[in-house]
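Task: encode each sequence below as structure tokens.

Item 1
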Amino acid sequence: MWEAPLSVTLEGPSVRLEPLVSAHAEGLRVSGSDPAIWRWMPTGTAPAEGSGTDDWIAAALRETEAGERVPFAVIDRASREVIGSTSYLELRPEHRGLEIGWTWYARARWGSGVNAGCKLLLL
């Protein structure tokens, strides 16, 4: 039986995808502080506001425990900064299928190739 990769780190030339943990909170707060990132996301507002990042991480980890999501922190390999997040969603082991989503990056990384690098690792 196929199992979701819950604790794997994926590493490419420019980014590393680490399983999301509470220790990523401060980096996610900084990288997710631009409201433009969240304009088209389901939340509509930046989780960087107040305790939102901690709440967002807690929700992602609850979904992980429920077998619904596998969230990652996106780390820039050169600077070691947390620059965003992405997830496996809609896990369907019976079909060996899943979706990739809940992806966002620090605005300074838009158009930099980070998204393509992350998606290649996830695939």
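Item 2
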Amino acid sequence: MNSDTFEIVIVGGGIVGLGTALALTERYPGIGLAILEKEAELASHQTGHNSGVIHAGIYYKPGSAKAELCVEGVRLLKAFCEEQGVPYDNCGKVIAATEESELPQLQSLYERGVANGVPGLQLIGPERARELEPRVQALRAIHSPNTAIVDFRRVAGAMAHVIAGRGGRILTNSRVAAVRRTQGEPLLVETARGMVRAKNLLNCGGLYADRIARMAGARPEVMVVPFRGEYYTLRPESRVVRGLIYPVPNPEFPFLGVHFTKRIDGDPEAGPNAVLAFARQGYRLRDMNLPDLAEMLAYGGFWRMSARHWRTGLYEIYRSISRAAFLRALQKLVPDLEDRDLLPGGSGVRAQTVARNGALCDDFRIFEAPRAVHVLNAPSPAATASIAIGRRIAAVAARSFGLPS
């Protein structure tokens, strides 16, 4: 493919890989850098299939990387969008407690958001909640006026344009098949388009990050387990939402529950659930990849996770199969929602990293190895935090690869 030796090769053309390339090309003008993307287009998987929400930073434990990078990431992302002419909408979000039992968790969420420095947060009563979202049911709620929406595919495209303008190479249709190490020589990265030579490897492979790490000789103590999130679209004339309506999440599960979202194009949708997928690109219920499934079933961490969360897992499968069950979950937030308001929607697959003890990894996880840095877990709010986490990864890579400070 290319006889050049790149200083850094980034595997993965999603928004985390692009955010990292953005940081590196800014920090080191003229650096030899290439991004390898296995698909014909960038942002084809997690980046292009998410709900488009720019999260404000409410949910995350104060002091965690998620909290710090999300709050900083919001500022950087909105500034980047304004600079590059990518539209976003500060539509705001209401997090609604619909049962008395949810009120302590709502209070805890509010305190977390305040501790994280999220601007403008308010605890509100049912009357104010209905002023904001006329069809919502809430005993009490959090209003986050600075939660926004954007098309992350357009963000990724703008990032790619800037990176290319700085001399970075973006190589699509370049699925990585092998990484070969030779003593004192560049890494040889075998792709579908030929061999790429790299002094250093930066793995932002998302759904395949653990496999890329193993190809490169690392032994990560985690595995990516895919979870599919399914959406319904809503009839626009139903006017279900003005902005975003979320439930109070289950604190033991790293998913936010089914919610209502307005897309940047104005189309409303509802979802996602969180269903175990039987393929790393399992966008439909019937999708199954036998090697993916066999690998997952052979992993002890999968069974330990299943033992902890089997009730929730079975309910998510039931809600995936049953449109009525999905509707009932949504009616907790909007009681007058009707079945005719729901139309078939899309889906996405989340790369949920699971540790050997069965724990669902809930924060960013970056693993350093000789001449390689592996981003093994980049969960939501990775898209929101993409520029901030890109700078964090770039700093780790600079130290690990011996680049000038």
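Check on item 2: The longest strand covers residues 342-355. DSSP finds ten helices and 20 strands in the chain.
End of task.
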